[in-house]
Amino acid sequence: MKFVFYVLGILVLTLGISLTIQSDLGTSPFDALLVGLSINIGLTVGSWEIIIAFILICCNSYLKRQRPEVLGLLTAIITGIGIDLWLLLLHHLITPEFWYSKVVCFGIGLVFIGLGTATYLHTNFAPIPIDRLTLILQELTRTNIFFSRTFIYLVFLIMAMIFHGPIGIGTLLTVCLGGLLLNYFMPLTKKAIDHILTQSCTSSNYEKEKNHSI
Q: For labelling alongside 142, which of 58, 102, 204, 205 has CA 20 to 30 A away?
C-alpha cells in the first residue's frame, strides 16, 4: 500500500513541477536550473533531473558519512520521466496566455508540489536527493523544514541565474512559500496516510480471521 502512495506522490509532484514550468511565471530555483541547463546545454529537463540527482546523492552521502542512497537515483529517474511526460502532455493541453490564467496554473502547480512531496516522503521508500538533502539539513541545523528548504532554494537560485533559467515572480513565490507549503502538508499527509494504512491493515486482519473461522 505504501508503494501506491509513493507513486501517487511522485505523479502529483511532477504534475506540479510541469504546471509551474508551463505557467511561464518562473519555476522553483531547482527546476529553473534544470530548464536553464536543458536550453543552454541540451538534453531534456527530466534528464538533468537525473544528472543533478546523482551529484546530490554523492553530496548527501558525504554530509551523512554513509553509503550513497542508490534508491534515491531510482526515484529521480521516475521523477525525470514523469516531468518529461507531463510537459509533453501539458504542452498540447495547457498553454496559459493571460496573466490570471498563468497565476492559476502556477498556484495549482505550487500546491501540487508541496502535496506530492509530502505524500511520497512519508512512505520512506526512496526520497529524491534534493528532498533528502532538505531532511539532512533540517537534522544538522536542528531547525524546521521551512528553513532548510528555503536555504537550498536560495543556493539553486544563484545557480539558475548563472544558467539563465526561467526566473520570475513565480521563483520568488516558490522560495517564500515552497518550504512553508511542505511544512504545512507534512503533518496532514502523515495523518491521512497513517489512517488509511491502519484501516487497510485492520481490514486485512479481519478478512484473515474471517477466512480462518470459516
A: 58
Q: Is residue 212 part of a domain?
A: no
pLDDT of 103-138, one tens digit each? 998 999 999 998 998 888 878 777 778 878 888 888
Residue 160 in this model has a pLDDT that exceeds 70: yes
Question: Could you tell me if residue 95 is inside a domain?
Answer: yes
pTM of the predicted protein model: 0.78
Assigned domain for 214 exists = no
Number of other CB atoms surrounding residue 162 within 10 Å: 11
Q: Which are the contacts of 196, defined by CB distance < 8 A and separation ≥ 6?
A: 1
Give the amino acid at 175. Answer: V
Alpha helices, DSSP H only, in 24-69? Answer: 29-40, 45-64
